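Listing S7. Sequence submitted for prediction.
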Amino acid sequence: MEKDTLLAVRGLTIQYETDSGVVHAVNGLDMELRHGETLGLVGETGAGKTTAALGIMRLLPEPPAKIQSGEILFKGEDVLKKSDAELRSMRGKKVAMIFQDPMTSLNPVLTVGEQIAEVIQLHERKSAAEAHVKAQEMLRLVGIPPERFSEYPHQFSGGMKQRVVIAIALACDPELLIADEPTTALDMTIQAQVLELMRSLRKELNTSMILITHDLGVVAEMCDRVAIVYAGEIVEQGTAHDVFNDTKHPYTMGLFGALPDLEGSEERLHPIPGLMPDPTHLPEGCRFSPRCPKRTDACVQTLPKNVETVPGHSVRCLLYEHGMQG
């Protein structure tokens, strides 16, 4: 593991055991995040992005979830080997998460200020008065007047609630922030404001970030590197520049083909045919083969390996494994 690497996930496999069968949610996921970097995890709903993030935080309900294999190395230490007490100390202090829906992330019977101060007191040796002062500073940092410290979540709009959630996540200066679709529940104008806030805070605090999204526009704006997730696997990974300008995997090409081009003359979008595979019955070979326009007979039977096409840009596709790209 390189000295500059903050997080290294290797061969992470997560399953859910349900009455209708075993759900193969995350299948041999590999990714790295360096200090001060933002990585975008992109994919359709059900691709396994949130499960992977909750796995990194060790927040999965076990059972039904089960981490079958793999390593999650945070600053060289395997998160999977940590005790419950060590995990509680890590969450919030070293690694924090912003969840999709601010409405359900906040406690309705505590004031927003109390909720920020609670996190500060939990992880930092501060008195109630000191935590109160720092909580007001955090509110100011995310653009909320400190005078609103004593107000309750129901008195805030959706965008303001998400700012409070960001303040809670950043209250103890975590080294890694995982943001799971942080703007999904917000309208477009507020989305832009929250993303701008997150970008400026990340620079100011030098926090590394994993941004989970299905919005390629958000990725282009926010991320240094991109990992495209399909059926619990990363099928393409590289710098945002490489993935956007030298797209390799047919699935990634399909995602871009389904986007409207304001400058192009195309009258119709080109959606990817078919649906994501049922995670209880994944295809035998390449998971994307039933929907892939470049499918060959080999794709249906052989699970592709991860191939580095140029340094730092890798793809999981038989076309590149056998040097047949095109």
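Caption to Listing S7: primary sequence and predicted structure tokens for the chain studied. The chain has a mean pLDDT of 89. The first strand starts at residue 5 and ends at 18.
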